[in-house]
Amino acid sequence: MSVADETTAPAGEAAGAPLLEVRNLKTYFPVRAGGLGQSKWLKAVDDVSLSVEPGQTIGIVGESGCGKSTLGRSILRLVAPQSGEIVFDGEDVLAAAPARLTALRRHMQMIFQDPLGCLDPRMSVEAIIGEGLLIHGVPRAQRRERVRELIEVVGLNAAHLDRYPHEFSGGQRQRIGIARALALRPKLIVADEPVSALDVSVQSQVLNLLRDVQQEFGLTYVFIAHDLAVVEYISDRVAVMYLGKIVEFARSADLFADPRMPYTEALLSAIPGGGPARKAKRIILKGDVPSPVDPPSGCAFRTRCWKAQAVCAAERPVLREVRPHHHAACHFAD
Amino acid sequence: MSVDIEPAAATQGAAMPAAPAAPAAAAAVAAREDIGRKMTRLAKIRRALGHRSLAIGLVICAVLVAMCAAAPLLTSIDPNAQDPWATFQSPNAEHIMGTDAFGRDIFSRVLYGGRTTMVASLSVVLLGSFVGTIVGLVAGYFGGALGFVVMRFVDLLLAFPGILLALAITAILGPGLTNGIFAIAAILVPVYARLVEGATVEIRGRPYVEAAVTLGAGPFFIIARHILPNVQSSVIVMTTTWLGIAALWITALGFIGLGVQPPNPEWGAILNDGQMYITLAWWITVFPGLMLSLFVVGVNLIGDGLRDELDPTLTRAI
After folding, report:
1. B2 — contact with chain A (CB < 8 Å)?
2. How far is A120 from chain B, CA to nearest CA, in Å?
3. Which of B15-29, B209-223, B250-264, B276-290 has the lowest mean pLDDT?
4. What is the ipTM metric for this complex?
5. Where are the domains of chain B?
């Protein structure tokens, strides 16, 4: 089940080699299941493949616990995947030796969900933004100059540099986090729910900032979120995750106009005040997400799906191209 | 420039409407942020001195330290000079704390002995906290099998009553002040290691450490720049608490003869000199005992005050 397998072209139409390619990535965590020594695997990311072209934004959505954050963290090797391949700029991230990994990470940065937690409370803003430059041996004078540029880029000013994280509002903190991520001039930024902790009025400001810096620095984003409106706004393509798997993958406009997987339909119906293209009827899903330690047989979503038939329990639907550039994992997607 | 203005939302959660809905809360937060920004180091020290127990503790300790440091100015009598014609004198004009069985001046012995007790207890906590902090940082940050083995060994040491272990170590090393310092410092190592390990494990999981990893920071950079600064206030508070206990243990070793060797003065040793005559000559034991009690009380007051003052929510901007 590969989105970007050999036979079909990636859903995105951008030419040239992808900046990031994830192939059959599996990140499992061991869990102790009661009995002695009986250990099971929590399949946080289960056989996920996707690719991102330079300058594009791929949105990854799903409920909490579906593995979207683990996918993002796996890309930067902040957690160790079980198997699979992550090719960044032509180089295998998972095979990189520690020194090489540090060099690679310079081009892959992360923006975090918790704007306060991701800033060391005992460091000044100047030290926070300049940390990457310090680590990579940029001399002090250049560091100061670069930090001063960056703080302006993210919409703050040099007067803020002597202050400490707790003196800022949530939106300002996230701006500091963005400046830190930009300091090393990365090619790829994994944004793990960058606006979900922010006030709605501030969310749009930060999203616009992310768009602006994407233009300015030619960035590629892997944008993780649970808020579909946010994802629709910023993404070129969207992958929907459920229980560690990608269940639908399409261009943003296609996915939002015509979802093919019932789970996506249910998610979209949950957007408050959906536009005219959207179904007025809210689809309420029954029950909870099944445990990723013991996923249901066949289609993982069948336990909550109103279209479920016998075939769904017997056979796992593969992610297939249901129409050009639109992939869905459902027996009834056509 | 577009700076967000939503201080209330920042502290009270995302779904909060803009400031007008909670003007009081917003103003309070704004005021606090203002204070945090304007507070200089000097102002912080001044505020800390406003803390009553901290101020009292500092005064007590400062007086005791000054007295012992200025011993040669306060008395001209050699603390070890014996005078067979002046034994067991009660406090008088010449010997303001009296004399002991050998006619030695208690005042002089208490002052010079205080130097030994204080320096020895300070050495104990510095040595113990230094080694213990390193052990805790390494075990906590790297974890794994190494961390597990180290921390189980730490648990093993913590299971022993401290003073008993110190006595055993001194008995093995042989009596003497230096050996006593090492013995008691060795007791402190697992105590600090446990504290620092716990804090390290917690801080290691914070997002800003992960952010440093993605920036390319190595383990030693992270320990030095992120973990140590964030555990240091706990270590400082712990050190003041243990300084008092270390003083008690040093005097305990001196009292039972495993610490400072006679005839050199040390509070515990002086107490021992006087304990046989306590019904005849109370002054031999009461004065060093009083000094010791004052010192321990003073140190503990400082510790209590620092615990409040070093609260991370108040000192993030040091």
Report:
1. yes
2. 6
3. B15-29
4. 0.85
5. 23-310
